[in-house]
Design a protein that fits this description.
With about 280 residues, the protein is mostly beta strands. It has three helices and 17 strands. It is globular, with a radius of gyration of 22 Å. The model has no long low-confidence stretch (mean pLDDT about 85).
Length: about 280
């Protein structure tokens, strides 16, 4: 099977507003990202039709996802927001030779921006959009000497759903997320460097509700039990509904993800030895 690499650098990621794996939908050929119906933070990733539909913790994905070289082992929480991305690489086709198991469909590398010792850098950017969308990102890069630097970045996003809830609780499809990232770079010796990173992401999401355009037809058989049940619990209308009402409070799905990574690089002559821990 032919293999190919698709990469997005920092400038196109910023212009497209991409800060998570889920934002890549419709941006990369042969890559399909499907949010799990009952949990918006869980992604089902397919490359060239190869992926995993079931997202249970006992299932290994067919597409490997890596954050700064550290393998993200499960689909739950793949929609996390990363405060500052340098690039995203999508390797299509089997990658078992370099990445080992769980890369039958391909591999996706999420690479963050590393601290720099060249000088202090600060940035602040934001944006607004329809459906109540707001976005704010702040970054600070501070050298702590000639051989050590620290970088801190935070990200906050809010967006409203398409369907209002006239009942108690939140609105259908409302989503708020935030991400924070702390990185430390150090030249330990002339040939040994260290990259340490801590990241945290929090997502609060109100699920959508099913809506049918037509009621389930009755066929005069035992399957009508399913149709009658659908008529009771699934609203239907010829046009998409702008508002629905819940009888009990609509509660959000709240997920917090955090992790640590440590990368050591040792230059031994013409060879480089790299140790990745997470």
């Amino acid at each position: 099977m032919p293999q190919s690499l698709f990469s997005l650098g920092q400038e196109p990621l910023t212009n497209l507003g991409i800060s998570s794996l889920g934002d890549l939908q419709a941006q990369v050929p042969n890559l399909n990202l499907d949010r799990f119906p009952a949990n918006n933070q869980t992604l089902r990733v397919f490359i060239r039709g190869v992926g995993l539909t079931d997202v249970q913790l006992t299932q290994d994905p067919a597409v490997g996802v890596y954050l700064d070289g550290v393998y993200v082992a499960r689909s739950s929480g793949l929609a996390l927001d990363i405060a500052e991305l340098e690039r995203i690489e999508v390797l299509r086709g089997p990658q078992g030779t370099l990445y080992g198991r769980n890369t039958t469909g391909g591999a996706i590398n999420l690479v963050t921006v590393k601290p720099s010792t060249n000088g202090p850098v600060f940035s602040l950017e934001g944006g607004v959009g329809n459906l109540g969308q707001t976005r704010l990102r702040a970054m600070a890069n501070l050298p702590l000497g000639e051989h050590v630097a620290v970088r801190v970045a935070v990200l906050d996003r809010i967006e409203d759903g398409f369907v209002n809830n006239n009942g108690p609780g939140g609105d259908f499809g409302d989503r708020s997320s935030s991400g924070a990232q702390l990185q430390l770079y150090g030249e330990l010796t002339q040939h040994l460097t260290m990259d340490y990173a801590w990241d945290k992401s929090r997502i609060e999401y109100y699920n959508y509700t099913p809506q049918a355009h037509y009621p389930a037809p009755l066929r005069g058989s035992f399957i009508d039990v399913v149709g009658l049940s659908a008529r009771r619990f699934v609203p239907y209308a010829r046009e998409p509904l702008a508002a629905l009402s819940t009888s009990v409070p609509l509660l959000p799905t709240d997920l917090t993800i955090s992790g640590h990574t440590l990368n050591l690089h040792w230059q031994a002559g013409d060879h480089t030895v790299r140790a990745i821990s997470g």
